[in-house]
Amino acid sequence: REIPILNFIQHMRHAAEWSIQSDYLGRKAIRLCVSQEVADAVKAAGSRGPTVVIPNGVDLPIVEADVSGGRPVDLFIAGLKQPVLAARAAQQLAAPGRSIEVLTEHVPREEFLDSMRRARVTLFLPNEEEGFYLPALEGMALGTIVVCPDCVGNRSFSLPGVNAFRPAFRFDDMVQDAETALTLQKPAAEALRRGAAETARNHTLAVERDKFHQVLADLDALWESS
Question: How many CA atoms lie within 13 A of 74 on its CB side?
Fold first, then answer.
């Protein structure tokens, strides 16, 4: 009897021909993907075996109330992965009386989360391709208005006009959306925050755990179906 194999896949590169990981897609496994975008990519690359999507969850208390008046920072730029773009964006978005904080170095996670808690708007600068990009979801839970460019893996949860801004991965587009977010009227800003809080409620660790437990409960059937 074969022993079921679980293959946890967190990034788009698993489907890229140049990656070491793609060499294993022809081996039978139950592939657990962090987003539908990753699942679609590995299936298109010819993965053998069933593919299950288990989106990432957050372990943060969700900010429900309007706390924008208590946020001392207008714009936080999360630029660890794109420090040059972060510096350019900060320069471009500078304005009289506007407070901007830029992060381009590793800091403890709680410090990073606190920066989002303190900011009205957060501009995230991920890699051009991400498997999910959890920081944007964390920002939604923490009540900052999220501006995060399209990095593939965030398409299923980062919804323009519903819970976030998701510009194309072009510098001018990212800066333009950040400026729009900074000048939103209160009703529009609060509508985005409500949508973001709802998204975060649907992406908790409990939901993630339940989906994984369901895979374990169906393990034999999943394995035998492939």
Answer: 16
Q: What angle do CA 213, 215, 217 make, to 5 degrees?
A: 70
Contact 58, 137 (CB under 8 A): yes
Q: What is the DSSP letter of 24?
A: G
Q: Place 2 in a pLDDT band, splitting at 50, 70 and 90.
A: confident
Q: What is the Cα Rg of the chain in Å? A: 19
The pLDDT-based confidence of 188 (bands split at 50, 70, 90) is: very high
- What pTM was computed for the model? 0.92
Residue 69: the pLDDT is 61
Q: Could you tell me the end-to-end alpha-carbon distance of the chain, in angstroms, rounded to an integer?
A: 14
List, as own/partner pairs, every contact residues 157-165 make where C-beta atoms lie below 8 angstroms and the sequence separation is at least 24, other chains included: 157/55, 157/199, 157/203, 158/133, 159/195, 159/199, 162/192, 162/195, 162/199, 163/192, 163/195, 163/196, 163/198, 163/199, 164/136, 164/140, 164/192, 164/195, 164/196
Q: Edge-to-edge strands of the sheet including 6-9?
A: 6-9, 30-33, 51-53
Contacts of 70 (CB under 8 A, 6+ apart): none
Q: Which two tokens stand for residue 24?
A: 């294993």
Alpha carbon 149 to its chain centroid, in Å, reads 10
Amino acid at 197: A
